[in-house]
Amino acid sequence: MPAEPFTTVHGRAAALREDNIDTDIIFPARFLLITAREGLGRYAFHDRRFAGDGQAIAGFVYNDPRFRAAPVLVAGANFGSGSSREQAVWALHGLGVRAVIAPGFGEIFHGNCLRNGIVPILLGREVVTALMDRAEAGLAFTVDLAAQTLTVTGEDPIPFAIPRERRLALLNGWDETDQVINTHGADIAAFEAWQRRTQPWLHV
């Protein structure tokens, strides 16, 4: 389904100083029976956020009122590894996350982000570690997808790269069908016109 267009996101960033946070940590397997896409934010990082009795676990970043609504997540290497469950991305989106910064991503998770309105920003480990410090200090982050820059308050912009077609889709809120129609619509129309002329029986 189409997402809202992604242009610029501004706000605080939550820092997770841990490598290899897999999709089961992001969205535990026991919730996979939930078929609705909406409302999955309540299950994001569930076992890190809540104890067995349902009480919030002190010290976890998304239980800190300063970062509870942070639209940017700064994470360790290999973020989103493990199983291919798309619900992990839906849960992050439901939590309010619109951009994830990390030194590396699970390959399928990375693609799922791009298809579901979350910008995955790949930067070097040293840069990411420094950004975690900035996040924990409460500085504001700005992700400008059109310019492909990440800016922290008072600092120079950091460039990042998103493949052109996926960036265009994110900027316009296109799903994969929208992307095909909007980028190849003229070619599709020309082919259909040619087919109607040369193979009219297919269009009876």
TrEMBL record:
<dbReference type="InterPro" id="IPR000573">
    <property type="entry name" value="AconitaseA/IPMdHydase_ssu_swvl"/>
</dbReference>
<dbReference type="InterPro" id="IPR050075">
    <property type="entry name" value="LeuD"/>
</dbReference>
<dbReference type="InterPro" id="IPR033940">
    <property type="entry name" value="IPMI_Swivel"/>
</dbReference>
<comment type="similarity">
    <text>Belongs to the LeuD family. LeuD type 1 subfamily.</text>
</comment>
<comment type="pathway">
    <text>Amino-acid biosynthesis; L-leucine biosynthesis; L-leucine from 3-methyl-2-oxobutanoate: step 2/4.</text>
</comment>
<dbReference type="InterPro" id="IPR015928">
    <property type="entry name" value="Aconitase/3IPM_dehydase_swvl"/>
</dbReference>
<protein>
    <recommendedName>
        <fullName>3-isopropylmalate dehydratase</fullName>
        <ecNumber>4.2.1.33</ecNumber>
    </recommendedName>
</protein>
<feature type="domain" description="Aconitase A/isopropylmalate dehydratase small subunit swivel">
    <location>
        <begin position="4"/>
        <end position="123"/>
    </location>
</feature>
<keyword id="KW-0432">Leucine biosynthesis</keyword>
<dbReference type="GO" id="GO:0009098">
    <property type="term" value="P:L-leucine biosynthetic process"/>
</dbReference>
<dbReference type="InterPro" id="IPR004431">
    <property type="entry name" value="3-IsopropMal_deHydase_ssu"/>
</dbReference>
<dbReference type="Pfam" id="PF00694">
    <property type="entry name" value="Aconitase_C"/>
</dbReference>
<dbReference type="GO" id="GO:0003861">
    <property type="term" value="F:3-isopropylmalate dehydratase activity"/>
</dbReference>
<comment type="subunit">
    <text>Heterodimer of LeuC and LeuD.</text>
</comment>
<keyword id="KW-0028">Amino-acid biosynthesis</keyword>
<dbReference type="GO" id="GO:0009316">
    <property type="term" value="C:3-isopropylmalate dehydratase complex"/>
</dbReference>
<keyword id="KW-0456">Lyase</keyword>
<comment type="function">
    <text>Catalyzes the isomerization between 2-isopropylmalate and 3-isopropylmalate, via the formation of 2-isopropylmaleate.</text>
</comment>
<keyword id="KW-0100">Branched-chain amino acid biosynthesis</keyword>
